[in-house]
Design a protein that fits this description.
- This protein is α/β, with parallel strands linked by helices.
- 30% of the residues lie in helices and 23% in strands.
- The protein is built from 7 helices and 13 strands.
- It folds into 2 domains: 204 residues, Survival protein SurE-like phosphatase/nucleotidase (Stationary-phase Survival Protein Sure Homolog, Chain: A); 29 residues.
- A hairpin with a 2-residue loop joins strand 3 and strand 4.
- Helix 1 packs across helix 4 and helix 2 runs parallel beside helix 3.
- The strands form 3 sheets. It has a 9-stranded mixed β-sheet with strand order 3-4-2-1-5-6-7-13-8, with helices on both faces. Strands 9-12 form a two-stranded antiparallel sheet.
- It is globular.
- The structure holds manganese (II) ion.
- The site of manganese (II) ion has 6 residues, from strand 5.
Length: 266
């Protein structure tokens, strides 16, 4: 591959610019293209798609193509695509996140939101997460899987899905499964404790996660050792819902009258 044809890759995450998963991803993607890192200066997991609009964003240059931002993952991708990089990147890769992003998690995840931001700004994009309980995990296999998938995403950019959520099991993956999002089973309760002054506080998300085990879900795939790739779409419209609600358009005007009429009769 000639230097001119080398793709420009923007990477970010939500675990912060110093996270080992990000370092492993940057190293693996150097084999695919010119890597630029624009990432939050600290842990920003579960901030979702938040943008910083009411305070200035500051950028620290940590290396030639490595920047820390005092903002969210979506801020970083915005800055990277719309201003900071010398050229518009060809692809956005977010991760490798410390911990899975399965099913409903994608609505909270800063990692997935970073990829969504890239997609909204017109680029192929991918979020990569490692099923690992701790940060001290080996991110090498997940980073290498991300590199292979980035090549495929770039190759098929004109006729394939442009936003992917990827989860990688621990250890050496057995292969790849194309999956759908699973559903979290909300069995855990919030944890209630008392602080040293006797006041009650709460802790969210501390319980063990449970998932419906549908055969084609990412949960099922990673559970048996496969990399899961779920193509995502950003159109949240329920087309089935549109069909179901069609009758409301005519009923809406009549509903109020019917109610009053009923009251008058009594
Ligand atoms: Mn994270």
């Amino acid at each position: 591959m000639t230097a001119a044809k080398r793709p420009t890759i923007l990477i970010s995450n939500d675990d912060g610019v110093h996270a080992p998963g990000l370092t492993a991803l940057a190293e693996a993607l150097e084999a695919v293209g010119a890597v630029y890192v624009v990432a939050p200066d600290r842990e920003r997991s579960a901030v979702g798609h938040a943008l910083t609009l009411h305070r200035p964003l500051r950028v620290d240059r940590l290396g030639t193509r490595r920047f820390a931002v005092n903002g969210t993952p979506s801020d970083c991708v915005n800055l990277g695509i719309l201003g900071m990089l010398p050229k518009r990147p060809d692809v956005v890769v977010a991760g490798v996140n410390a911990g899975s992003n399965l099913g409903d998690d994608v609505t909270y995840s800063g990692t997935v939101s970073a990829a969504m931001e890239g997609s909204l700004l017109g680029l192929p994009a991918m979020a990569v997460s490692l099923i690992a309980p701790t940060r001290a995990a080996d991110y090498g296999p997940a980073a290498r899987a991300a590199a292979r998938l980035t090549r495929l995403l770039l190759r098929d950019r004109d006729h394939g899905p442009s936003l992917l959520n990827v989860n990688v099991p621990r250890g050496r993956p057995r292969g790849l499964k194309v999956t759908r999002l699973g559903r979290r089973v909300y069995s855990e309760k919030v944890i209630e404790r008392r602080d040293p002054r006797g006041d009650v506080y709460y802790w969210l998300g501390a319980g063990p996660a449970a998932w419906e085990a549908g055969e084609d879900t990412e949960f099922a795939a990673v559970h048996v050792g496969y990399v899961s790739v779920t193509p995502l779409g950003l159109d949240l419209t329920s087309y089935e819902g549109m069909r179901m609600l069609k009758g409301w358009e005519t009923e809406f005007g009549r509903a109020g009258e019917g109610h009053h009429g009923h009251a008058r009769r009594r």
